[in-house]
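Lay summary. Proteins are chains of building blocks that fold into shapes, and those shapes determine what they do. In this project we predict the shape from the chain. Here is one chain we studied, written as its sequence of building blocks.
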Amino acid sequence: MDKDIKISDEQIERAAYILKSISHPLRLKIVQVLGKRGPLSVNDLTQLLDSDQSLMSHHLSMMKLKGLLSSKRLGQRHLYSLRARSVLGVFDCLLDCECNYN
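And here is the predicted shape, written in a compact code that computers can read:
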């Protein structure tokens, strides 16, 4: 491998961590929607993505814990936003990938 393009083990580990953190269809949808629309509540996301509220809450909590999302309280609602916006680039790249997944 060329020394100029060597990626450190730490960078590889971080990339793997991020990929694992978004490696679920609902989490990928959450990333996409929050990237396009900005901060949304659990109820907003549940309706937009036609999901169960408890499942949505589970995924949002996990993604927040891993540092991909942030939240702020607005009255009785928690608004979630994409903290790691660079993930959108990964998402766009994956959408362009022409691999066979079947």
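What the prediction tells us: The mean pLDDT is 88.
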